[in-house]
Fold:
Amino acid sequence: IIADLDKKFPFKDNYAENIIAGELIEHLLNPHQFLKECYRVIKPGGKLILTTPNATGLQIITGKESPHHYFVLSKKNLHFLAMKSGFKKIDINYLNVYFKRNFFLRALGFLVPKLRPVLFAIMEKEDNEKNDNQEK
Structure:
């Protein structure tokens, strides 16, 4: 399927069990639209799993970021967009990748997680049936 991910996805509501988007969202012109569409397409209880460069990571600070990225999100910005898109259960962590050969950078990333180069996020679409039963 070929689709413009900045627009409405060609799938019905609650179509997918899960969506995996690795190093994708930063290439889109409208990351909020993408997250809203993921939320719409994921079945209740399903997850969106994504990775993206970290705006507070060393590669951004040192100016080594790709010129093909339209948006680079911080943990706070990604969490805000996820909430605004409908996700309630959101877990975002910093990944210390790309520094395998440089002990100093690996140690720095270990000591200051905010400097790690990648964000790893799992966003879950709540199961409304489960929530309705808990409220009763």
